[in-house]
Amino acid sequence: MNDPFCKVLAVTPDNTLVRSLRAELRRAGAATHVAHLKSPDAIAGAAGLQDWLVVDVDRFGHAVCRHGSVVAWPGQRLLVCKSDFRTPFNCLVVDRHKAASRLSTLVSGDFPSPKRLPRTRQQQKRKHNTLDGSQTWELLAAAAELNRLNRRQLAESCVRHLPPVFDMRLASYYSYDPKAGALVLECCNHPYEINTLIDLGRDPGHPMAWAIEKNHPCLIRDWETAARPLPDRPYASRYSTRSCIIIPLATGERLAGVLNLSDPADDRPLSTEQHQPLLGMLADILNGAVANIDLFERTQQQALTDALTGLGNYRAFSQQLRNEVMRSRRYGTPLSLMLLDVDGLKQVNDSLGHPAGDRLLRTVASRIVAAVRQIDLPARCGGDEFGVILPNTELEAAKRVAQRVLADIRQKSIMWRRKPLPASISVGVGQYQGELTTDEFIRSIDKALYTAKVEGKNQMAVSHEVPQPA
Protein backbone atom coordinates (compact mmCIF):
# COMPACT_ATOMS: atom_id res chain seq x y z
CA MET A 1 0.00 0.00 0.00
CA ASN A 2 2.45 2.61 -1.20
CA ASP A 3 -0.05 4.62 -3.27
CA PRO A 4 -0.55 8.26 -2.14
CA PHE A 5 -4.32 7.76 -2.11
CA CYS A 6 -6.86 5.05 -1.36
CA LYS A 7 -8.18 3.06 -4.32
CA VAL A 8 -11.81 2.02 -3.85
CA LEU A 9 -13.47 -0.62 -6.00
CA ALA A 10 -17.28 -0.37 -5.89
CA VAL A 11 -18.98 -3.61 -6.92
CA THR A 12 -22.69 -2.90 -7.35
CA PRO A 13 -25.26 -2.79 -10.16
CA ASP A 14 -26.45 0.60 -8.82
CA ASN A 15 -24.81 3.43 -10.80
CA THR A 16 -26.50 6.05 -8.64
CA LEU A 17 -24.86 4.63 -5.53
CA VAL A 18 -21.41 4.88 -7.10
CA ARG A 19 -21.95 8.47 -8.28
CA SER A 20 -23.18 9.43 -4.83
CA LEU A 21 -20.17 7.75 -3.21
CA ARG A 22 -17.74 9.61 -5.46
CA ALA A 23 -19.42 12.97 -4.84
CA GLU A 24 -19.53 12.51 -1.09
CA LEU A 25 -15.91 11.42 -0.93
CA ARG A 26 -14.89 14.52 -2.86
CA ARG A 27 -16.89 16.73 -0.53
CA ALA A 28 -15.35 14.97 2.46
CA GLY A 29 -11.87 15.71 1.10
CA ALA A 30 -10.76 12.09 0.95
CA ALA A 31 -7.89 11.35 -1.44
CA THR A 32 -9.51 8.41 -3.20
CA HIS A 33 -10.01 6.91 -6.63
CA VAL A 34 -13.31 5.04 -7.08
CA ALA A 35 -13.52 2.37 -9.76
CA HIS A 36 -16.78 0.58 -10.56
CA LEU A 37 -17.65 -3.01 -11.48
CA LYS A 38 -21.30 -3.94 -12.03
CA SER A 39 -20.90 -7.63 -11.17
CA PRO A 40 -18.88 -9.41 -8.44
CA ASP A 41 -17.93 -12.00 -11.06
CA ALA A 42 -15.69 -9.40 -12.73
CA ILE A 43 -13.47 -9.19 -9.64
CA ALA A 44 -11.66 -12.41 -10.54
CA GLY A 45 -10.36 -10.82 -13.73
CA ALA A 46 -9.17 -7.58 -12.13
CA ALA A 47 -5.48 -7.19 -11.36
CA GLY A 48 -3.80 -5.82 -8.25
CA LEU A 49 -6.81 -6.10 -5.95
CA GLN A 50 -4.60 -6.73 -2.93
CA ASP A 51 -4.06 -2.95 -2.72
CA TRP A 52 -7.71 -2.02 -3.10
CA LEU A 53 -10.47 -1.49 -0.56
CA VAL A 54 -13.29 -3.52 -2.09
CA VAL A 55 -16.77 -2.03 -1.78
CA ASP A 56 -19.15 -4.89 -2.57
CA VAL A 57 -22.96 -4.54 -2.36
CA ASP A 58 -25.15 -7.19 -3.95
CA ARG A 59 -28.68 -6.51 -5.18
CA PHE A 60 -30.19 -7.94 -2.02
CA GLY A 61 -28.03 -5.86 0.32
CA HIS A 62 -26.20 -8.93 1.64
CA ALA A 63 -22.61 -8.84 2.81
CA VAL A 64 -20.37 -10.59 0.29
CA CYS A 65 -16.71 -10.91 1.27
CA ARG A 66 -14.29 -10.34 -1.62
CA HIS A 67 -10.58 -10.60 -0.86
CA GLY A 68 -11.19 -9.83 2.81
CA SER A 69 -12.89 -6.48 2.25
CA VAL A 70 -16.54 -5.57 1.97
CA VAL A 71 -19.13 -2.85 2.25
CA ALA A 72 -22.71 -4.03 2.84
CA TRP A 73 -26.06 -2.54 3.77
CA PRO A 74 -27.68 -4.57 6.59
CA GLY A 75 -30.86 -2.63 7.40
CA GLN A 76 -30.10 1.06 7.82
CA ARG A 77 -26.43 0.53 8.71
CA LEU A 78 -23.39 0.43 6.49
CA LEU A 79 -20.82 -2.21 7.38
CA VAL A 80 -17.35 -1.15 6.23
CA CYS A 81 -14.55 -3.68 6.48
CA LYS A 82 -10.95 -2.91 5.56
CA SER A 83 -8.08 -5.34 5.11
CA ASP A 84 -4.41 -4.39 5.11
CA PHE A 85 -1.06 -5.96 6.00
CA ARG A 86 -0.85 -4.65 9.57
CA THR A 87 -4.47 -5.09 10.71
CA PRO A 88 -6.00 -8.29 9.35
CA PHE A 89 -9.60 -7.15 9.68
CA ASN A 90 -10.92 -3.75 10.76
CA CYS A 91 -14.60 -2.89 10.64
CA LEU A 92 -16.90 0.04 11.33
CA VAL A 93 -20.66 0.13 11.68
CA VAL A 94 -21.83 3.55 10.54
CA ASP A 95 -25.05 5.25 9.55
CA ARG A 96 -25.91 4.70 5.90
CA HIS A 97 -26.30 8.42 5.22
CA LYS A 98 -22.87 9.21 6.70
CA ALA A 99 -21.11 6.45 4.82
CA ALA A 100 -18.81 8.64 2.70
CA SER A 101 -17.51 10.84 5.50
CA ARG A 102 -16.90 7.84 7.77
CA LEU A 103 -15.24 5.98 4.89
CA SER A 104 -12.88 8.94 4.43
CA THR A 105 -12.09 8.74 8.15
CA LEU A 106 -11.34 5.04 7.75
CA VAL A 107 -8.93 5.49 4.88
CA SER A 108 -7.29 8.53 6.51
CA GLY A 109 -5.74 6.16 9.05
CA ASP A 110 -3.33 4.94 6.35
CA PHE A 111 -3.40 7.67 3.70
CA PRO A 112 -2.96 11.45 4.01
CA SER A 113 -6.27 13.34 3.90
CA PRO A 114 -7.19 17.00 4.46
CA LYS A 115 -10.08 15.87 6.65
CA ARG A 116 -8.03 13.62 8.89
CA LEU A 117 -9.29 13.65 12.47
CA PRO A 118 -7.01 14.27 15.46
CA ARG A 119 -5.31 11.06 16.46
CA THR A 120 -6.86 10.83 19.91
CA ARG A 121 -10.40 11.34 18.63
CA GLN A 122 -9.85 8.88 15.80
CA GLN A 123 -8.59 6.25 18.19
CA GLN A 124 -11.59 6.83 20.42
CA LYS A 125 -14.00 6.36 17.50
CA ARG A 126 -12.27 3.14 16.45
CA LYS A 127 -12.31 1.87 20.00
CA HIS A 128 -16.09 2.12 20.27
CA ASN A 129 -17.02 1.17 16.72
CA THR A 130 -14.58 -1.58 15.80
CA LEU A 131 -16.10 -4.99 15.21
CA ASP A 132 -14.39 -8.32 15.29
CA GLY A 133 -14.56 -9.67 11.76
CA SER A 134 -15.14 -13.30 12.68
CA GLN A 135 -18.01 -12.34 14.98
CA THR A 136 -19.56 -10.25 12.23
CA TRP A 137 -19.63 -13.16 9.81
CA GLU A 138 -20.87 -15.52 12.53
CA LEU A 139 -23.75 -13.13 13.20
CA LEU A 140 -24.59 -12.83 9.50
CA ALA A 141 -24.53 -16.64 9.21
CA ALA A 142 -26.75 -16.96 12.30
CA ALA A 143 -29.19 -14.43 10.81
CA ALA A 144 -30.13 -16.96 8.14
CA GLU A 145 -31.12 -19.41 10.87
CA LEU A 146 -33.34 -16.77 12.52
CA ASN A 147 -35.54 -16.39 9.44
CA ARG A 148 -38.51 -18.27 10.92
CA LEU A 149 -42.26 -17.80 10.69
CA ASN A 150 -43.01 -19.49 14.00
CA ARG A 151 -42.29 -17.95 17.42
CA ARG A 152 -41.24 -21.22 19.00
CA GLN A 153 -38.83 -21.97 16.16
CA LEU A 154 -37.39 -18.44 16.42
CA ALA A 155 -36.82 -18.93 20.15
CA GLU A 156 -35.08 -22.27 19.59
CA SER A 157 -32.89 -20.81 16.83
CA CYS A 158 -31.85 -17.91 19.05
CA VAL A 159 -30.88 -20.23 21.89
CA ARG A 160 -29.00 -22.59 19.55
CA HIS A 161 -27.15 -20.21 17.22
CA LEU A 162 -26.54 -16.90 19.04
CA PRO A 163 -24.47 -17.83 22.13
CA PRO A 164 -21.38 -18.80 20.03
CA VAL A 165 -21.47 -15.42 18.24
CA PHE A 166 -20.88 -13.63 21.55
CA ASP A 167 -18.74 -16.39 23.09
CA MET A 168 -21.47 -17.09 25.65
CA ARG A 169 -22.56 -20.39 27.10
CA LEU A 170 -26.14 -19.79 28.18
CA ALA A 171 -29.21 -18.30 26.52
CA SER A 172 -32.89 -17.94 27.39
CA TYR A 173 -35.81 -16.57 25.37
CA TYR A 174 -38.89 -15.16 27.08
CA SER A 175 -42.11 -14.37 25.20
CA TYR A 176 -44.37 -11.58 26.41
CA ASP A 177 -47.93 -12.29 27.53
CA PRO A 178 -49.80 -8.95 27.21
CA LYS A 179 -52.86 -10.18 29.15
CA ALA A 180 -50.80 -11.16 32.19
CA GLY A 181 -48.21 -8.39 31.73
CA ALA A 182 -45.50 -11.00 32.24
CA LEU A 183 -42.58 -12.65 30.48
CA VAL A 184 -42.96 -16.41 30.03
CA LEU A 185 -39.98 -18.69 29.44
CA GLU A 186 -40.19 -20.06 25.90
CA CYS A 187 -36.85 -21.81 25.46
CA CYS A 188 -33.42 -22.02 27.14
CA ASN A 189 -30.25 -24.11 27.21
CA HIS A 190 -29.59 -23.80 30.94
CA PRO A 191 -28.74 -27.12 32.58
CA TYR A 192 -30.59 -26.06 35.74
CA GLU A 193 -33.82 -24.40 36.82
CA ILE A 194 -34.39 -20.72 36.00
CA ASN A 195 -37.35 -18.35 36.38
CA THR A 196 -40.22 -19.45 34.15
CA LEU A 197 -42.42 -16.38 34.79
CA ILE A 198 -41.40 -12.77 35.39
CA ASP A 199 -44.23 -10.43 36.37
CA LEU A 200 -43.17 -7.02 35.08
CA GLY A 201 -45.84 -5.26 37.19
CA ARG A 202 -44.65 -6.77 40.48
CA ASP A 203 -40.95 -6.62 39.67
CA PRO A 204 -40.32 -3.33 37.78
CA GLY A 205 -36.69 -3.33 38.90
CA HIS A 206 -35.81 -6.57 37.12
CA PRO A 207 -33.05 -6.09 34.53
CA MET A 208 -35.33 -7.36 31.77
CA ALA A 209 -37.87 -4.69 32.77
CA TRP A 210 -35.00 -2.21 32.66
CA ALA A 211 -34.07 -3.22 29.12
CA ILE A 212 -37.73 -3.07 28.06
CA GLU A 213 -38.04 0.42 29.52
CA LYS A 214 -34.96 1.56 27.59
CA ASN A 215 -36.14 -0.28 24.46
CA HIS A 216 -32.50 -0.91 23.69
CA PRO A 217 -30.07 -3.85 24.09
CA CYS A 218 -28.37 -3.78 27.49
CA LEU A 219 -24.89 -5.09 28.21
CA ILE A 220 -24.28 -5.57 31.95
CA ARG A 221 -20.59 -6.08 32.66
CA ASP A 222 -21.08 -6.61 36.39
CA TRP A 223 -24.42 -7.19 38.04
CA GLU A 224 -23.28 -5.68 41.35
CA THR A 225 -21.83 -2.46 39.92
CA ALA A 226 -24.54 -1.68 37.34
CA ALA A 227 -25.55 1.96 36.96
CA ARG A 228 -29.08 1.15 38.12
CA PRO A 229 -29.74 -0.85 41.29
CA LEU A 230 -30.78 -4.33 40.26
CA PRO A 231 -32.73 -6.89 42.28
CA ASP A 232 -31.24 -9.92 43.93
CA ARG A 233 -30.63 -12.84 41.62
CA PRO A 234 -32.22 -15.95 43.19
CA TYR A 235 -30.05 -18.23 41.02
CA ALA A 236 -26.85 -16.12 41.08
CA SER A 237 -24.74 -18.98 42.44
CA ARG A 238 -25.42 -21.00 39.29
CA TYR A 239 -23.72 -18.46 37.00
CA SER A 240 -19.96 -18.30 36.61
CA THR A 241 -19.87 -14.50 36.05
CA ARG A 242 -21.97 -11.41 36.82
CA SER A 243 -22.19 -10.40 33.14
CA CYS A 244 -25.15 -10.72 30.80
CA ILE A 245 -26.70 -9.32 27.63
CA ILE A 246 -30.42 -8.48 27.48
CA ILE A 247 -32.11 -7.73 24.14
CA PRO A 248 -35.79 -6.67 24.10
CA LEU A 249 -37.70 -7.71 20.99
CA ALA A 250 -40.46 -5.43 19.73
CA THR A 251 -42.36 -4.46 16.61
CA GLY A 252 -43.32 -0.81 16.78
CA GLU A 253 -44.84 -0.23 20.21
CA ARG A 254 -45.65 -3.92 20.80
CA LEU A 255 -43.31 -5.95 22.99
CA ALA A 256 -42.77 -9.49 21.69
CA GLY A 257 -40.20 -10.92 24.11
CA VAL A 258 -36.71 -10.74 25.57
CA LEU A 259 -33.51 -12.62 24.73
CA ASN A 260 -30.87 -13.15 27.44
CA LEU A 261 -27.26 -14.26 26.94
CA SER A 262 -25.02 -15.00 29.93
CA ASP A 263 -21.87 -16.72 31.17
CA PRO A 264 -18.99 -15.76 28.82
CA ALA A 265 -17.01 -18.79 27.72
CA ASP A 266 -13.74 -17.42 29.18
CA ASP A 267 -15.43 -16.51 32.52
CA ARG A 268 -14.35 -12.89 32.15
CA PRO A 269 -16.67 -9.85 32.30
CA LEU A 270 -18.12 -8.79 28.96
CA SER A 271 -16.18 -6.29 26.87
CA THR A 272 -18.21 -3.25 25.83
CA GLU A 273 -15.80 -2.55 22.95
CA GLN A 274 -16.07 -6.11 21.64
CA HIS A 275 -19.81 -6.73 21.97
CA GLN A 276 -21.65 -3.41 21.89
CA PRO A 277 -21.33 -2.79 18.12
CA LEU A 278 -22.82 -6.22 17.39
CA LEU A 279 -25.83 -5.73 19.65
CA GLY A 280 -27.42 -3.07 17.47
CA MET A 281 -27.09 -5.31 14.40
CA LEU A 282 -28.52 -8.29 16.28
CA ALA A 283 -31.45 -6.24 17.62
CA ASP A 284 -32.31 -5.11 14.08
CA ILE A 285 -32.15 -8.70 12.81
CA LEU A 286 -34.33 -10.06 15.64
CA ASN A 287 -36.88 -7.25 15.44
CA GLY A 288 -37.13 -7.85 11.70
CA ALA A 289 -37.72 -11.56 12.32
CA VAL A 290 -40.43 -10.77 14.90
CA ALA A 291 -42.09 -8.31 12.48
CA ASN A 292 -42.15 -11.02 9.79
CA ILE A 293 -43.80 -13.44 12.21
CA ASP A 294 -46.40 -10.83 13.18
CA LEU A 295 -47.21 -10.16 9.53
CA PHE A 296 -47.44 -13.88 8.76
CA GLU A 297 -49.73 -14.51 11.74
CA ARG A 298 -51.98 -11.57 10.84
CA THR A 299 -52.24 -12.85 7.28
CA GLN A 300 -53.12 -16.34 8.50
CA GLN A 301 -55.68 -14.94 10.92
CA GLN A 302 -57.31 -12.84 8.22
CA ALA A 303 -57.54 -15.90 5.98
CA LEU A 304 -59.57 -17.68 8.70
CA THR A 305 -61.71 -14.74 9.91
CA ASP A 306 -64.98 -13.33 8.66
CA ALA A 307 -64.42 -9.61 8.12
CA LEU A 308 -67.96 -8.52 9.06
CA THR A 309 -68.50 -10.40 12.33
CA GLY A 310 -64.97 -11.20 13.46
CA LEU A 311 -65.89 -14.87 13.84
CA GLY A 312 -64.17 -17.71 12.08
CA ASN A 313 -65.10 -18.18 8.43
CA TYR A 314 -66.23 -21.41 6.74
CA ARG A 315 -62.63 -22.45 6.12
CA ALA A 316 -61.79 -22.21 9.82
CA PHE A 317 -65.08 -23.94 10.71
CA SER A 318 -64.52 -26.91 8.39
CA GLN A 319 -60.89 -27.38 9.45
CA GLN A 320 -61.76 -27.35 13.14
CA LEU A 321 -64.78 -29.64 12.69
CA ARG A 322 -62.67 -32.24 10.91
CA ASN A 323 -60.15 -32.13 13.77
CA GLU A 324 -62.88 -32.51 16.37
CA VAL A 325 -64.51 -35.40 14.51
CA MET A 326 -61.18 -37.27 14.40
CA ARG A 327 -60.68 -36.56 18.11
CA SER A 328 -64.17 -37.85 18.93
CA ARG A 329 -63.54 -41.03 16.94
CA ARG A 330 -60.19 -41.67 18.58
CA TYR A 331 -61.05 -40.94 22.21
CA GLY A 332 -64.82 -41.43 22.24
CA THR A 333 -65.49 -37.95 23.57
CA PRO A 334 -68.89 -36.36 22.86
CA LEU A 335 -69.13 -33.75 20.13
CA SER A 336 -72.13 -31.59 19.24
CA LEU A 337 -72.79 -29.18 16.40
CA MET A 338 -75.21 -26.30 16.09
CA LEU A 339 -76.23 -24.56 12.83
CA LEU A 340 -78.16 -21.28 13.02
CA ASP A 341 -79.91 -19.36 10.26
CA VAL A 342 -81.01 -15.72 10.53
CA ASP A 343 -84.65 -15.61 9.47
CA GLY A 344 -85.67 -12.93 7.00
CA LEU A 345 -82.24 -11.42 6.38
CA LYS A 346 -83.03 -10.91 2.68
CA GLN A 347 -86.18 -8.95 3.53
CA VAL A 348 -84.19 -6.73 5.93
CA ASN A 349 -81.59 -6.05 3.24
CA ASP A 350 -84.25 -5.29 0.63
CA SER A 351 -86.39 -3.04 2.81
CA LEU A 352 -83.86 -1.29 5.06
CA GLY A 353 -80.59 -1.70 3.15
CA HIS A 354 -77.51 -3.80 3.62
CA PRO A 355 -76.15 -1.69 6.52
CA ALA A 356 -79.20 -2.77 8.54
CA GLY A 357 -78.59 -6.40 7.55
CA ASP A 358 -74.95 -6.08 8.57
CA ARG A 359 -76.02 -4.71 11.94
CA LEU A 360 -78.35 -7.68 12.39
CA LEU A 361 -75.58 -10.17 11.53
CA ARG A 362 -73.03 -8.54 13.84
CA THR A 363 -75.47 -8.50 16.76
CA VAL A 364 -76.49 -12.13 16.28
CA ALA A 365 -72.78 -13.06 16.12
CA SER A 366 -72.02 -11.23 19.38
CA ARG A 367 -74.91 -12.94 21.16
CA ILE A 368 -73.82 -16.35 19.95
CA VAL A 369 -70.33 -15.65 21.34
CA ALA A 370 -71.85 -14.58 24.67
CA ALA A 371 -73.80 -17.84 24.92
CA VAL A 372 -70.96 -20.31 24.29
CA ARG A 373 -67.74 -21.26 26.05
CA GLN A 374 -64.21 -20.17 25.15
CA ILE A 375 -63.37 -23.69 23.91
CA ASP A 376 -66.33 -23.64 21.48
CA LEU A 377 -65.86 -22.33 17.94
CA PRO A 378 -68.56 -20.06 16.56
CA ALA A 379 -68.20 -19.25 12.86
CA ARG A 380 -70.08 -17.58 10.02
CA CYS A 381 -70.58 -20.33 7.46
CA GLY A 382 -72.40 -18.34 4.79
CA GLY A 383 -74.46 -15.23 4.12
CA ASP A 384 -77.08 -15.72 6.87
CA GLU A 385 -75.86 -18.98 8.43
CA PHE A 386 -73.72 -19.53 11.51
CA GLY A 387 -72.23 -22.69 12.98
CA VAL A 388 -70.98 -23.53 16.48
CA ILE A 389 -68.72 -26.51 17.21
CA LEU A 390 -69.22 -27.76 20.78
CA PRO A 391 -66.38 -30.11 21.84
CA ASN A 392 -66.92 -32.41 24.84
CA THR A 393 -70.62 -31.56 24.78
CA GLU A 394 -73.51 -34.03 24.81
CA LEU A 395 -76.81 -33.39 23.06
CA GLU A 396 -78.74 -32.15 26.11
CA ALA A 397 -76.09 -29.55 26.90
CA ALA A 398 -76.02 -28.45 23.25
CA LYS A 399 -79.83 -28.02 23.29
CA ARG A 400 -79.52 -25.76 26.34
CA VAL A 401 -76.99 -23.59 24.51
CA ALA A 402 -79.32 -23.34 21.50
CA GLN A 403 -82.23 -22.36 23.78
CA ARG A 404 -80.11 -19.62 25.37
CA VAL A 405 -79.32 -18.09 21.98
CA LEU A 406 -82.97 -18.32 20.88
CA ALA A 407 -84.20 -16.67 24.09
CA ASP A 408 -81.61 -13.89 23.81
CA ILE A 409 -82.68 -13.01 20.25
CA ARG A 410 -86.41 -13.18 21.14
CA GLN A 411 -86.22 -11.08 24.30
CA LYS A 412 -83.70 -8.38 23.38
CA SER A 413 -84.53 -6.19 20.43
CA ILE A 414 -81.90 -5.36 17.83
CA MET A 415 -82.27 -1.66 17.09
CA TRP A 416 -81.66 0.13 13.82
CA ARG A 417 -82.20 3.88 13.66
CA ARG A 418 -84.25 3.74 16.85
CA LYS A 419 -86.53 1.02 15.49
CA PRO A 420 -86.36 -2.72 16.25
CA LEU A 421 -85.32 -5.02 13.46
CA PRO A 422 -87.46 -8.10 12.72
CA ALA A 423 -84.96 -10.55 14.19
CA SER A 424 -85.32 -14.27 14.74
CA ILE A 425 -83.22 -17.36 14.17
CA SER A 426 -83.78 -21.02 13.40
CA VAL A 427 -81.47 -23.61 14.93
CA GLY A 428 -80.52 -27.18 14.09
CA VAL A 429 -78.54 -29.12 16.68
CA GLY A 430 -77.22 -32.65 17.05
CA GLN A 431 -74.52 -34.87 18.52
CA TYR A 432 -71.93 -36.77 16.53
CA GLN A 433 -72.81 -40.43 16.19
CA GLY A 434 -70.49 -43.33 15.55
CA GLU A 435 -68.82 -43.46 12.16
CA LEU A 436 -70.44 -40.55 10.35
CA THR A 437 -68.07 -38.67 8.08
CA THR A 438 -67.66 -34.95 8.61
CA ASP A 439 -69.80 -34.12 5.59
CA GLU A 440 -72.53 -36.56 6.70
CA PHE A 441 -72.49 -34.98 10.17
CA ILE A 442 -72.97 -31.50 8.69
CA ARG A 443 -75.79 -32.72 6.42
CA SER A 444 -77.62 -34.29 9.35
CA ILE A 445 -77.60 -31.00 11.30
CA ASP A 446 -78.52 -29.09 8.14
CA LYS A 447 -81.62 -31.30 7.78
CA ALA A 448 -82.62 -30.42 11.34
CA LEU A 449 -82.14 -26.71 10.54
CA TYR A 450 -84.33 -27.08 7.45
CA THR A 451 -86.99 -28.75 9.61
CA ALA A 452 -86.94 -25.81 12.04
CA LYS A 453 -87.44 -23.33 9.19
CA VAL A 454 -90.21 -25.34 7.51
CA GLU A 455 -92.14 -25.72 10.77
CA GLY A 456 -92.35 -21.97 11.33
CA LYS A 457 -88.85 -20.60 12.02
CA ASN A 458 -87.74 -19.00 15.32
CA GLN A 459 -87.31 -22.45 16.88
CA MET A 460 -84.93 -25.38 17.36
CA ALA A 461 -84.96 -28.82 15.74
CA VAL A 462 -82.81 -31.77 16.83
CA SER A 463 -81.03 -34.28 14.60
CA HIS A 464 -81.05 -37.92 15.75
CA GLU A 465 -79.43 -39.33 12.63
CA VAL A 466 -77.17 -42.35 13.09
CA PRO A 467 -74.94 -44.07 10.50
CA GLN A 468 -76.74 -46.59 8.33
CA PRO A 469 -75.41 -50.17 8.36
CA ALA A 470 -73.40 -51.15 5.32
Produce a short descriptive summary.
37% of the residues lie in helices and 23% in strands. The chain contains twelve helices and 19 strands. Helix 9 runs antiparallel to helix 10.
What does the model show?
By secondary structure, this protein is α+β, with helices and mostly antiparallel strands. The chain has 3 domains: 6-130; 136-300, Beta-Lactamase (2-Layer Sandwich); 314-463, Alpha-Beta Plaits (2-Layer Sandwich), CATH 3.30.70. Helix content is 37%, strand content 23%. It contains 12 helices and 19 strands. It has helices at residues 15-28, 99-107, 119-129, 133-145, 151-161, 207-214, 272-303, 314-331, 345-352, 354-371, 395-411, 438-454; strands at 6-11, 32-37, 53-56, 70-72, 77-82, 90-95, 168-177, 182-188, 197-199, 218-220, 244-251, 254-264, 335-342, 377-380, 385-391, 415-416, 419-420, 425-431, 460-463. The strands form 5 sheets. It has a 6-stranded antiparallel β-sheet with strand order 9-8-7-12-11-10, with helices on both faces. The protein has a 5-stranded mixed β-sheet with strand order 14-15-13-18-19, with helices on both faces. A hairpin with a 4-residue loop joins β7 (168-177) and β8 (182-188). The longest helix is centred in the middle third of the chain and has 32 residues, at 272-303. It is elongated. The N and C termini lie far apart (90 Å).
